[in-house]
Amino acid sequence: MNYCFIYNPRAGPARDHGRLLGPLQTFIARHRLDATVIATTCRGHATELAAAAVARGCDAVIAVGGDGTMNEVARALVDTPAALGLVPRGSGNGLARHLGIPMRFPAALDALLTSRIHPIDSGEANGRSFFSVMGTGFDTAVLSQFELLPTRGFLTYVTTAARLFFRYRCGTYALTVNGESLPPRAAFLVCVANGDQLGNNARLAPGARLDDGRLDLVIVPPLSIFSALPAAARLFAGSVNRVPGLHRHAIKQLVISRPQAGPMQVDGELVNTSADITVCIRPASLRVLVPVTNP
């Protein structure tokens, strides 16, 4: 198998920035892999590199980075013969966690050697591909603040969310689900999940599958400080479906109508878009490398 490793040197803890290239090259040499390693230099670069790898006939393109790197690489591989591999280095790693890929760098590399290829679905939101989750509401508000901070990571994200919670005002959304219009409603969060993970083992859609030909719409109602803490606990316990007022729908098509244009988040990255967001599924459109230990 011919590999192309696309490596984001800015992903992961600051202490590791730029320090994993040597171990990655050692791994390739030790196992005598037919592989190249290319580092990204800016946002969007991974998509260009992945598209070039597909054009060269690479069998597998490995994203070494976080959810943003994963998304950039994967969207160049949709509907191509090339398979996506993941070596997670971000703070969330939602898709990698769902697939059972080890979080430790050496173990994730070793898992590539025995992984099998499995097709999964992907989603599109206003033409932008996503593979784990997209959404609008509180998550986009948090990311708007988070991206301005000099430090990243789970603790920084949680601190940012906690500070924003007390001044956040829920939006009102009109939803058209599989062609059926629902009454406008206020919501804390409107998300569409492909897998079960938001990242960091926060399970927004417990039981969701990547290969079932559907997406999961999750509508989180407005929350008070008294209801938010139990809801967060259920999110990490895998029982978020029991949050009072939460609605979940299996979808193939969706239109989210907001009062005005603004950002949406796509696999943890902010994208400015129109007031209406049209979401659809592309079944079995991406081949991924899955550890043999994941059934």
What does this structure look like?
- This protein has 295 residues and is an alpha+beta fold.
- The protein is built from 8 helices and 18 strands.
- It has helices at 21-30, 45-56, 67-74, 94-98, 105-112, 138-146, 154-165, 225-237; strands spanning 2-7, 34-39, 60-65, 83-88, 116-125, 128-130, 133-137, 171-177, 180-187, 189-193, 197-199, 202-203, 215-220, 247-251, 253-257, 262-266, 269-273, 276-290.
- β5 and β6 form a beta hairpin.
- It is globular and about 55 Å long.
- The model has no long low-confidence stretch (mean pLDDT 93).
Describe how the helices and strands are arranged.
Blueprint (H helix, E strand, L loop, with lengths): L1 E6 L13 H10 L3 E6 L5 H12 L3 E6 L1 H8 L8 E6 L5 H5 L6 H8 L3 E10 L2 E3 L2 E5 H9 L7 H12 L5 E7 L2 E8 L1 E5 L3 E3 L2 E2 L11 E6 L4 H13 L9 E5 L1 E5 L4 E5 L2 E5 L2 E15 L5
Parallel strand pairs: 1-2, 1-3, 3-4, 4-18
Antiparallel strand pairs: 5-6, 5-18, 7-10, 7-16, 8-9, 8-15, 10-13, 11-12, 13-14, 15-18, 16-17
Low confidence ranges: none
Rg of Cα set: 19 Å
Number of helices: 8
Number of strands: 18
